Records
---
Amino acid sequence: MTTRECYELMGADYENVLERLMTEKLVRKFLYKFADAGDMEELKTSLAAGDYSTAFRMSHNLKGVCANLGITRLCASSSELCEELRDGNYTDKVEPLFAAVTADYEETIAAIKELQAQESQQ
């Protein structure tokens, strides 16, 4: 799998991130760091604990990293969740928005892990 194919699987914008980071090596480096970061777990934990200000911050972080890496599908879903949490309140929209973020995140991580596994086999 190429990095471009990984981006296609993620519903992401490879050309955008390559323009920003300049080399495929840097794109992969930051993708792998993203896959190892704990932001999603902290988002899940904070929502479960009712800590909506932390959940807002973590969804905002996720949105920002995804924007910088051109991970457009996850950026869009995390942005919607972030806006819903902006005032620090739980609404009936939070749960379905978090489910969408979770699904997008899992697809993103699966694609990155596949890319990483293929790279390590070479």
Note: The two ends are 11 Å apart (CA to CA).
---
Amino acid sequence: MAENHWNEPETSSSEKPANKVEAAVLAAKSGSESGKEWKLLEKLLSGLYTEQRRSRRWGIFFKALTFVYLFALLGLFWSSSELTTDAKPEAHVAVVEIRGAIADNQDANADTIIWALRDAFEADSSKAVLLRINSPGGSPVQSGYVFDEVKRLRALYPDKKVYAVITDIGASGAYYIAASADEIYADKASLVGSIGVVAGGFGYVDLMNKLGVERRLYTAGEHKAFLDPFSPPNKDESVLWQQVLNTTHQQFIEQVKIGRGDRLKDDPKLFSGLVWTGEQAVELGLIDGLGSSSYVARELVGVDELVSYMPSPSPWEQIADELGVSFARTISTQLGLGSTPQLR
């Protein structure tokens, strides 16, 4: 007689389990050790479900934290913007900032500074105007625009004095602007002066000869290639350029003399381009004394309040700048790239 056998189900190669879950399912279907396999399947599915719930909770938490941070920044910047633009006391000193390089494409450009100056002079509640300067200088043209505007506004508002306060540095074009004020003050360690003009560049002619590079330049006009760094210097053009620098320097000197008058000491080094500390600058007549912005407002003007008249960026611009600065600061700290000089 033919014997009957229970044949176990065969699994083809295309149905091989891909992971533990599928293995448990196939084992459960086969009926072998069904109790253990179902427990394994239940345990794996429960673990997966728990992990998914945990992942969703953390995702929701971080998204909520991001939104809270952004809304907090918005509230902070909007509130600070309202305080700086609307809350102007009855009696205050109007502050106009000149910070960083003075140039047309920088924050310290003539248009921005001049608009702030006009608002500061026109405000009835401003008792004086204070130029708070922290700049190494820059464009003589931009500096000249500001100098001329301060002189014009002083003539229109003779009862409103202008003070310049130099913090870390007020040199070159920045001192040019400071000289337009009635009085100049600085810290004893501030850097003041640098009454001179500089222009520089590089020449690559010898390097090109060593590399075998030929310069091909076509011009219409005898001096159109003036100051081209890839062409050998021309003696006549060098003389002409020096005359331009000398003329600009003389204009600078004349404006400083107009602003400072007899307070300047007769020292041949005064207009040599050197810089001095605040203490030395007092002796040379470059500044009138040592003091901060608060000192000038409190002791000289007689009011305690300082109000900035510089235009404020929009809240969105402030947030973008703050996030960018925070990110850059974090990366710099982590990589050990901080190199700000400090007194220790």
Note: The beta strands are 92-99, 126-135, 161-171, 183-186, 191-193, 275-277, 289-290, 306-308.
---
Amino acid sequence: MLFVYGTLRPGFGHPLGIRLAGSGSHQGSAWVGGCLFDQGDYPVALPDPLGRFRIVGELFSLEVGNSLWAELDAYEDFDPGDPEASLFERCGVEATRPSGAAVSAEIYWYRASVRGMRRIESGDYLKFAI
């Protein structure tokens, strides 16, 4: 399962997001604990260990071994063989559906400083950007 919170969400028209949605794997909306920041061209997310903030996004079912994982990793500047040199890191996270059901998913957390970036108060990049 993949949790997306930025330009790959339905509604942005990103080619990779369209391919992801077109795979028939969309599982609906969810949220994760974290903070969302406006980087300029896209949002970045950091975990919130205190659980005060939420990031709104979408869940996609994506099997291990699906070639889209490699494309997503490249798009997110994540090298599984060298996470320390990556801008983002793909990590496991608990996502909560509107029903309250929790599911395990993967998310791309930002690894660099957010100093000078504006926090997206709503945690919803789609509402923020449109």
Note: The mean pLDDT is 93.
